[in-house]
Each structure stands twice: as C-alpha cells, then as structure tokens.
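B., you asked whether I could sanity-check this one before it goes into the benchmark set. Here's the sequence:
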Amino acid sequence: MVFDAGGHEVARHQLEHAQIMTQPGWVEHDPLEIAERTNTVIAGAMRDAGLSAQDLAAIGITNQRETTVVWNPKTGKPWYNAIVWQDTRTDRIVSALDRTPAGKTIRERTGLPPATYFSGGKLQWILENVDGVRDAAARGEAVFGTIDTWVIWNLTGGVDGGAHVTDVTNASRTMLMDLRTLDWDDELLKLFGVPRAALPAIRPSSDSRFYGTTRRTGPLGGEVPVAGDLGDQQAATVGQVCTSPGEAKNTYGTGNFMLLNTGRQIVPSKAGLLTTVCYKLGESETIYALEGSIAVTGSAVQWLRDQLGIIQSAGEIEALANSVNDTGGAYFVPAFSGLFAPYWRSDARGAIVGLSRYHTRAHIARATLEAICFQTRAVLDAMVNDSGVRLELLKVDGGATVNDTLMQLQADILGVPVVRPVVAETTALGAAYAAGLATGFWKGLDDLRQNWKADRRWEPRWSADQRDASYAGWQKAVERTLNWVDVG
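And here's what the prediction gave me:
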C-alpha cells in the first residue's frame, strides 16, 4: 500500500500466498513465495499508481509477528518452511518449560507465557529437527528472523549485504528479549538453545538511521530508505493513533488482537494478557501495551470457505448469517490452535456445541461471527481487570470490519460503541507512519492525529440481560473444548 501525507490510500496491490498444513496443528509458509510476492505487489502498486522510487519518502514493513524463518545468508535459501504463529508443534517444548522455574523467568523478563504462539520454541524446533541447521548456525550459514527480518533482508540486498535487523515490537514476541533492556537475554537464549550470532540486531520501530535502502535491481528500481518496522498489531495501534495511555484498538484479521497503550509503564498481567512493546519511535522512550491475542477469528471464516464449503467467498458470510435471527443456541469455539488470551490453553481444540436437527449452515455462519465477538469480550474483560480502565469506545480495523453485521454484534456483545476509521487497513498505515516519521515526512504524532477520521459507529442494541445470558452460554461452550489434547 502507498499513502500520502494525509494518510489517504494512493495505491494497493495484494496477493494471497499458500497455507501449508501437512499435519494436524502444523501451519507453514514458503519464505521464497513470500519474498517473490512481496516484490510482485510492490511493483504492481507502483505501476498502478504510475509511481517511481523517486516518489517515495520511505518504506515501512509490517508482518505477522511470531512466524519464524531460518535461512542461509550466503545463498538466500531457507533451511525450512516458515513456521507460522498458529502452529502448535512446539506444545511439548513450551509445556516442559512451564513446569519448571524457567516458566516464571520467561514471564517476568518477556511479559509472555510459555506458549506455542511465540518464536523461541519454533526456532528451537528448527535447530533440533532440521538436519544441519545447528552446525550451519555455528558457521554463520543459518540466521533467524521473523517475516519482517526476512523481507527487510531481501529488500536491502539479500546475499549482497542485506540488513539483518528486527524492531523492538517483533523481538518482544520471541520469548528471547528482555522487555526492560530491549536486548536478547543470555539466560533465555540458553533455555531455548539459541545461538546469539544467529539473531538479528534489534532496532527502534521508526529509525532515522534507516535499516538500509532498496537496491536499483529490486522491485522499486531505485534507492528508497527502509526506515519503519512494526509487528502487525503494534502497527495497527500506531495507525489508529492510539498513542496515549488508555487508548485501545482491536484488529480483525486471521486472528483478533486488542492492544491497550500503557505508556512507559510495563504492566504485568494477572488476567491472562500479554505485556508487550507497543512501539519505540527513534530515540524516544519505549511505549508498552497490554495485548489480548486471539488465534482464530478471520481464519474461522476461511475454514468455512476452504474446508467445509459452507460459503464460496468470505464476503458471503454476512448475508448467510443475516438469513437467521440468532444461532438457535449454537456456539462455535474455533480453538484450532488451542485457546490464546485470556485462557492460554494449548490442550483445547475446536468445537461446535448446542446443535440440533433445527440448525442449518446459516446458524453456523452466525455462530462464527458471534465467536469472534465473544472472544473479544473475554479479552476486554481481562484488560479492565488488569488496567482498571473501562473503555468508552473501541476503535476497530482490519479486513473483517467491512462486515457491518459483525461490527454490530461486537457492539452488542461488548456493550461498548464500536468505531471504524475511514482507512480500515491501519496496519499498513501504521507501518507507513513509522517510516515517514523517521524521514520527517510527518513531523510528529500530532500530524497523525489530524489524519484519523471515523467512517462509521455502531451503538449496542442488546439489553444487559441478553448480553449476560449469551456470554454465559459462550463460557459453557469454552469449557467443553478444554483437556482435549494431551500436551504433557
């Protein structure tokens, strides 16, 4: 996506890439396909808008944060497919750590519970299970990165001097970085058996020194500073301009992610949330956040489309769900990768409960939308418990926010107004903001605040009794999913 100074979309080009699922619980991506499609969409957006490299002030990168790739920096070839954040193959690794004092160490230093979600266990799995990788790492022929690191390395030259860097937000999702020092922690590296030399340098999210510049031989055909890097949910927080403590946003994508800005304060969670870096702009102080991460929301709609064939396209779900007035008492808990915040139960698996002969695919479609909203309610309740801040409204973004029925259900189930901005793709906008702040394209956060404009607002319609009764049913449904898989 390309944005102008007003935060307006100038151009976009997008492509899906393959989801590789060879075993239950395993989810992989092809890093070479991601690199190739990155080049294709850059070239496509520039071509469609009639732009050249000289028209761009800077480039920002955003990514699904915990997805892990290891590659040979001398050849540019991955040692293995990228292991995606949803992948659960590391359940025994993290469960074993959590039963020892290491679990407490990880929580205290990283703000994260030991979980399959994060990168450290995935990197350990590759080092232990892919032939030759650990020896290659010792020779400098195997390096680690999340997808931002992989993309930046390729854009800035690849085997010809590509920058091996990440930012504080992505590093904070590895279980390997200390939240206070913003550096890799030697004790944590030892717990996971990770060599420090394989790790990227940790930089600010917006860096006036730049991570590097694009090459003339690349998709832009010219040199442009790569100066912004934010994990997707932190990027959306910046894109929504939630830059004051107490402001929160919820992003609706493959999963759902709610972030509450806690300012310079690191707030340990007692209610099952993550404590994470929100952003670091240049030399300014680090800003932290509480996050509620939900593994399966938009991907549940994809499941209805791709695996069950209930719908032919994601856009069909709204009309199908609206063809019935309610779910008829059915609940769908899409715990395909276990349950993330605030439950953190890797032993859970998906379930549809409350079914009778009365139910149709329309009820399942509506239950899928409600599941997205109920999971968000659980996270919001945890945020209120941890922070003491009761939200007055929720800013929302991401692809699923085009579904007006979903947004109305979200307001009904939360009992809080929901507001969608004019630019719904705030994840890309936040990455652009980080890069533009680094180069002076935007002078400061006030410029970003002036850009934010509301598109639509939904007010709650349900009564308190209806809200409480439906949520009580959801909690019963969640109980039915627990202890399904032995992760001992």
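One thing to flag: Residues 361-387 form the longest helix (27 residues). Otherwise nothing jumped out at me.
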